[in-house]
Structure formats: C-alpha cells, structure tokens
Write the structure tokens for this entry.
Amino acid sequence: MKFSESLKKTSDFQTVYKKRKSKANKYLIMYVHKNGLNINRLGISCSKKVGNSVVRHRMARLIRESYRLHEEYFNTGLDMVVVVRPSAKDIDYHKMSSALMHLSNLHHITCK
RNA sequence: UUAGUGCGAAAAGUGGUCGCGUAUGCAUUAUGGGAUUCACACUUGGUGAAUUUUAGCAUAUGAGGAAAGUCCGGGCUUCGCAGGGCAGGAUGCCGGAUAACGUCCGGUGGAGGCAACUCUAAGGAAAGUGCAACAGAAAGUAUACUACCAUAUGUAUAUAUGGAAAAGGUGAAAUGGCAGUGUAAGAGACUACCGCUUAUCUGGUAACAGGUAAGGCAUUGUAAACCCCAUCCGAAGCAACUCAAAUAUGGGUAGAUACGGCGGCCCGUCGUUACUCAUGGUAUGAGGCUUAAGACAAUUGGCGACAGUUGUAACAGAUAGAUGAUCACUCUAGACAGAACCCGGCUUACUUCGCGCUAAGUUU
RNA sequence: GCAGAAGUACUCAAGUGGCUGAAGAGGUGCCCCUGCUAAGGGUAUAGGCCGGGUGACCGGUGCGAGGGUUCAAAUCCCUCCUUCUGCG
C-alpha cells in the first residue's frame, strides 16, 4: 500500500476509540480519528465471536484488499479502525468492499 | 446387494490481471519500472532509440493431516549440582522396539460380538490401617429371627433347655457349587465331578498352559482409599536464553561566567553543554529460527514395531504476525480447519476414494 | 505462544464416597403494616426437564458433557466443552 501503514500499538487503538467517532452498518463498524500525519493508518479488529482463526484471518484479508484497491479515493491523515461484526462471517469480497465504502461515505473521508 | 469390520491414499485443478513475506541477483550519479514520441516487423502485441518521471525490478519459493487440544515423552536453553536419601509425582500381566514415553509391536489371561474383529489402570487384600450407609439374627473376633429336630412340662397350641446351620426372609455381597450317602433333624461329617489352596512334573525366555498328588474349604469386598513391592523422574520454559544497546544513574575531563527564565537594570536565584569511563540490561534491534533421533525410493535382517546399507530431492520462517482478491474454463461442486523453537506419540474435529475380510440374502 | 483455576435451582453458593428425596442466603408467592407505594415484619409451598394424575402427589432423569472404578459417584480416574486469570 503506497500511502498507508497498519495501526500497531494498543495505545493507538485506544486513542481512536476514545474519540467515539464511529459509524456502523450490518457487517462493519468504523472509527476515524485525524492523526496529523500525511499517511493513513488502518487497524483491523476481529473478535473471537466472529469465528475460528481461518475465518478471522480471511476477514482481515478482505478488508485489507478492499482498502488497497480503493486507496486513492481516501483522504490522507487519518487513523481508521475497522471492527468486524459476527454477521459478516459468510460474505464475499464484493459485499465487504461495498460495506467499507459505504462507511467511508458516511464519515465524509472520501475525495471523489 | 445390505449390514459390519480392518488397512491405505488424497485434501479440486489450469490459465490471465492486481497484491503480500522470504532468499538470491542487478540497481539505488541512469540499471530497472511507468508515461509520451519515433523507427522496425506487424492481427492483438513485441523489439530498438530518444525525452520525461519514479525507486525499485527480475527469478525462485511460500500452512496441515490434524498446523488444533496442550494430555504424555524427548531435543535445546538457563538456573542448580561431590555423592546419596526423604518427601512428592508417574507407571504397573509377559517379552521386545525406541532418544524417550502413559506410545508402538508380538504374545498370555479376561470381557463383548454369529463372525471378521474390537476393548482391557490386568502387581499385592495370609505386612498393616481405614471404610462397607439403609435393611438384616449376623457385614469379619461371625452369628441364630422365622422355620426344623430331640428332651422336659403339657390334651393340644405353647414355654424352657439343647442340637444343627439345610430351607425362608434382608442385602451389592451371607463363609465353596451341585448330586448322593448319612442322621432324631442336619452339616465337607463322608463320597464323585467342578472350583479353590499347597506341593510337584512337563512345555514355554516369560506371562501362562496342561497333568499328578494332597488338603478338606480356612482366607468377604474395596488399593481410579491410605499403603506395600518393582521401575522411572532436579526445576523452569523460546514471553527460555545470548549479543549490541538510546535514555537514565554515578564518576572524570574540558568549557565558561556564556545562554535562557524571574527582573526596567545590577546583584541574586533556578535551569541548561560537549567528550569519555563505569554500572545495569529497560525501549529498540539482531541472534535463537530451521538440515532434522528428518522425508522418499530400493535393498538386507526381523512374524512385527523397527534397525542397517545405498541412492534421490534438498528452499515457509512471519513478528499486530506474510498465501489473498478477481475473471474464465473443467469436474466428483470442494468438509474440518491457519505454522510461531523443533521432533515422536495420544486425543478430538472432519470430506472423498480405493483395497482386503466377515455375516445374511439373491443369482449362476 | 506458554502456565494455571473454576463450572451445583433464576442469582450467590455449602456440600470431599451412603438419611442429597440437594443445606443456607437473596429473589419469587401470600398475609400484616399504610389513604397508596417503598422500606419493615410474619408465613408457606414448590424448586430444572420428561411422563402419568381432576388434585394431593407418583415415577424417571438431572450437580458443564461423555465414558470408567465401586454394591453405591456432585465427590475418585480419563477424555472433551465453556468461562476466567497470570506471564512482554
């Protein structure tokens, strides 16, 4: 990913959560927080309620792939945390991608 | 064909486009990629040159049979260590395999199944201690409620004394089983068969099996109760541990009344520098990290687990954690499920296929 | 990844082989108190699930699940499941 990194520290996750700026739909919850840098940082959270390790890993891959293919549409300077909800465990890439872009539009962080 | 039982194999495939980890190579002052223009051959597209822009590009390779549960065993690392014992824990028919095991293989006894076959914590209760509720006369030193027999009293019922432990009843379990002899009634009191115990013979490495003789039945069950006997075990775990080590702490040297804050200014007061050494081992980085008691094939030995020899290919190694997305085609339409130091097992989850064997039915 | 603990009525829980037919507390039901409610006091039955009975009640099963040892298991042993905790 050219303009982005992953969000790694637990404290980074906590700062994003504490802003309490969240939007949600049936499959995902998204938290957004301005980080003051010129890159985006993406964090993915997927609890054990969603499924076993194979399912959780697949969810993370789908979100990362959808973000990568739509990367140029996003504004820069953002920390994002995407939480996967249990109803998302059976969906395919197209639904996941549309769900992610839907939340991004709700947050007004896309530039096109 | 149906039902069952044992063993083995695989874990969708092919191609295009975009994307990720690792290794190697070439680059990081024009090598490679992208874009534009021109030329060549020309169906998409390819090759060469120039300009411009960018930091990468090319090749190879990349999750499992259970990677899972963490139930056992071992390697490895650190700590401890002259040697031994106690405590604690584990195992427990016999023989073997193995680095080791609670695993595996081959046997013995027992249990289940018509059978193929499967299961089996299977040492010791005459070393000692504990426990056995309720019921029952009595639960381990045995004992006598009903009922039986004899004698005495008595018409009889019944009462007292004695005999005996077969029948009834209780219980999970009642002091060998069954038949006969015997007797007042009975009893291993005696006899045959079976069981048990002891001694002994034969076969077997052994567990054990088979036979002979004697005893005359004592010696209930429980050791997944304590325990006894035999064998084994030091503890912790890659978040182990090793190396480098910012900051910090302490010391030394240099430097200067320099700079900043308080203040109108001076005085005063507070804070601040550079280099170097030591301590300690945090943030962070690197190692540990993948070639190993390894896999596959052939062959030799062995009933087998397995061992020996030869040959072949030798590439996951991430660190908030890499295998994905999408399009097309094919088929049987794809279950359970993701490495985290590494191996050997066990257990659990689960899809499909093949082969052998057993029973019943049908056909020839 | 490694190491450890727990699971019993609706809730908190006692119970370490046998009168558990499951103690105790909270909660629930009824009554008193009050004009009404809360608080307080008194009292009673059943305790989950299945089957039978008009009913009182009766039978079976049940201590996370499944096996085993034992005459007998919530308790002892084994294998799974779920929840929680610690280690940077």
Observations:
- The radius of gyration of chain A is 13 Å.
- The mean pLDDT of chain A is 78.
- The longest strand of chain A covers residues 28-34.
